[in-house]
Amino acid sequence: MKVANDIIEWLIQSGAIVWLFYFGFVIAKPWVGSKIDHAKTVRQREAWTLLEQVAMTAVNSLVSSSKPGPQKFAEASDQVQSYMADHGVHIDMKTVQSVVQAAYEQSPLTPTTEQTKKPDKLGQKEPDLVPDGKAKAIDPKEVA
C-alpha cells in the first residue's frame, strides 16, 4: 500500500499526472468526436425516414379529395413541414416539396401518366405509356 501511495505522490509532485490527463484527453477527443458524428448521422437518417413516411401519409390522405392537383401538393407540403417542425425537425420547403413529389410518384393510389421514350425496331423513338404506378420515381435524396 505504501508503494501505491508513493507512486501517486510522485505523480502529483512531479507534474506527470498533468501529462497523463493531457494524453488521455488527446486520445479520447477523436473517439468522442466520432461518436458525436455517428449520433448526428443516425439522427439525420431517422429524420429522413420520418419525413418520407409523413409525406406518404399526407399524399395518401389527400388522394381522394376533390381539390385540384397543385392545391393538394401545396397542402401536403404544408402538412409535412408543419408536422416535422412540431417534432423539432426543421427542413426547408424545397426539400419537403421534393419528398412530397416523390411520395406522389411512388404512391400506388396516384395515377401516373408519364411517358417514356423507347426506341422501336427501326430505332425511332415513339412515346410509350407507362402503366399506372410503375414509373420510376424521383429519388428525393438526389434532389436536395
Structural write-up:
The chain has one domain. The chain is mainly α. Helix content is 67%, strand content 7%. It is built from five helices and two strands, in the order H-H-H-H-E-E-H. A two-stranded antiparallel ribbon has the order 1-2. This is Phage holin. Keywords: Membrane, Transmembrane, Transmembrane helix.
Q: Pick out the low-confidence regions.
A: none
Number of domains: 1
Spatial extent as radius of gyration: 28 Å
Helix content: 55-70%
Q: What is the arithmetic mean of pLDDT?
A: 81
Spatial gap, N to C terminus: 64 Å
**Widest sheet, order of strands:** 1-2
Helix run count:
5
Describe the oligomeric state of these chains in a short phrase. single chain
Order of helices and strands: HHHHEEH
Please provide the count of β strands.
2
Instruction: Look at the helices and sheets and give the structural class.
Output: mainly alpha
Percent strand equals 5-15%
The major beta sheet can be summarized as:
2 strands, antiparallel
Shape: elongated
Features:
single chain; 144 residues; mainly alpha; two-stranded antiparallel sheet; 5 helices; elongated; transmembrane; Phage holin; membrane; transmembrane helix
Annotate the secondary structure layout.
Blueprint: H1 2-14, H2 16-62, H3 69-86, H4 93-106, E1 115-119, E2 125-129, H5 140-143
Antiparallel strand pairs: 1-2
Helix pairs in contact: 2-3, 2-4, 3-4
